[in-house]
Amino acid sequence: MNKNKSANINVTSVFHVDLPFDTYSYKLTVLGDCKVLDSWEKPKIWLRQIPNSTLWVSDPVQLPAKLNVEYKYCLVSGGYTPRSLNFEGYGFGTNRQMEFRENIYDVWDDSETFKKRIISTDDYTFINYIYDY
């Protein structure tokens, strides 16, 4: 039996992330440390905003079911350049660890540039979407 066979197993996942602030002209992407997530390089998996909400969703993504995949969400301004990447969190110590499942639900981690606004009870579209989906 081929021991490397498990290395070729993929999981189909959809990323859902709540961005409780105005993104203006920025676009949301997800980057990570595997080839599908562009190995922290040029984005190719983009999320789209659900109308009248703070929820962003990706198309289904085939991810390699390997251990320890790290990822982060990133806002990109205008056309892509390495300087146009605005990662969530405060450095690589705040990378997310992939949990392989059909739907991945996250909330944007504050960064120096983009911080969540204080949410009101009217801002629970994200939770409603999860339970109604």
From TrEMBL:
**GO molecular function terms listed in the Swiss-Prot or TrEMBL record:** starch binding
Pfam families in alphabetical order: CBM_20
- According to the lineage, what is the superkingdom? Eukaryota
Provide the species name.
Answer: Gigaspora margarita
All copies of domain CBM20, residue ranges: 14-79
Under InterPro entries, the record lists:
Carb-bd-like_fold, CBM20, Ig-like_fold
Instruction: Tell me what this protein is called.
Output: E3 ubiquitin-protein ligase
